[in-house]
Predict the 3D structure of the following.
Amino acid sequence: MDTAATLAFFQNFYTDAPLYVVAEPGLSAALPPVARAAGATAGTNAAASGAIAADVPVPAPAVPAVPAAAKAAPVAAPVTGPGPVSPAKLPSLATLNVPVPTSRAATPTTPLVPPTPPTPPLPPAPAPVAVPGAAAAEASHQPTTLTLAQLPAATAAPAGRVQPTPTQSPVAHIPFSTLGSNANGLVVLVRLSPEEFRKVPRNVFLNNLLKALRLIVEDVVLVNVEHPSYPVALCSLRQHLAAKQFLAFGKNLLDVAVYTTQPYEPVLLFGDTAFLGASEISMLEYDAGRKKQLWQAVQRMFLS
C-alpha cells in the first residue's frame, strides 16, 4: 500500500482536521523523499491547525452520567502474577461504627399504661346528728304498752257456779304453752294443735290486727291452752306473766272469764285485768261481719 497516497487522500478528505501520525522507527528512512516531504507538509498543516484551534474554543465533550450504584461499586484490585482471581476484600463490620438494628421479636414490648388520674380528696364526713331515742330503738325494740279505756266491770257469776279467784282455781293444773318473751305485753289466748300454734306468729289476720294497734308479734305473748275443753287458770298465768290485758280467740280459754263475759264485749276482771273475747282466728279470717265487731270492740278497749 502506498503510504504517501493514502496520507494525501485523508488530507484532502479531512480538511482542517489535524492528523497525527506516529512514525515507526526505521520506517522514515525507508520512505522516499516525496513521502518525507508530504509528512513534513502534514506536520506543518497540523501545527497551523493546532494554532487556529487554540484561538477558537472547542466545547468539551459531554461526559455521560454515571449511576450512583456504579460509582459506589468497589473496584477490584489489579491482579499481579499468576493465580486465580479473588474478589476485592471488603472492610470488616467490626471496624464500622454503624448501629446494628436488633430484631423486633428479641426486644420485649412494654405495653403502654395510661397514667392514673389523681384521686380527688374525699369530702369530710358529716357529723352524726343526734336523734332522741334513736340509739335505744336501734339497740333493741321497745314494746308498746297499750293504754286501757274506761271499761265496765264484769258481771257476777250465776248462782250455783263457783267463780275462780286470781290466786285459787280448780283448773290450775291445766297445761299451756307460750310463744314470746314480753312478759308485760298483751296476752293472746288460743286453743290449737301444736303444729298450728307454731304458725300463728305468721298469721296475716293477726298481724294486721296488731299493726292497727301499732304493735307487732314481738310485743305480745301467745298462749295455747292445751286442754280441749277446760280453760287455763289466771293464777297459773300470773306465775309466768305479769300482763293484765287478754285477748281470747275462742271459748272457755280463761277460767275467771267463763261465766262473766260476752263475745266482743271488753270488761274489767277484779278491777285490774282487761279481757276481750272473740271467735276463733280461723272464723274471723273469712267473716267480714265478725271482723267489724272485733275491731269496734278493740277500739272500745284500747283506743277510746
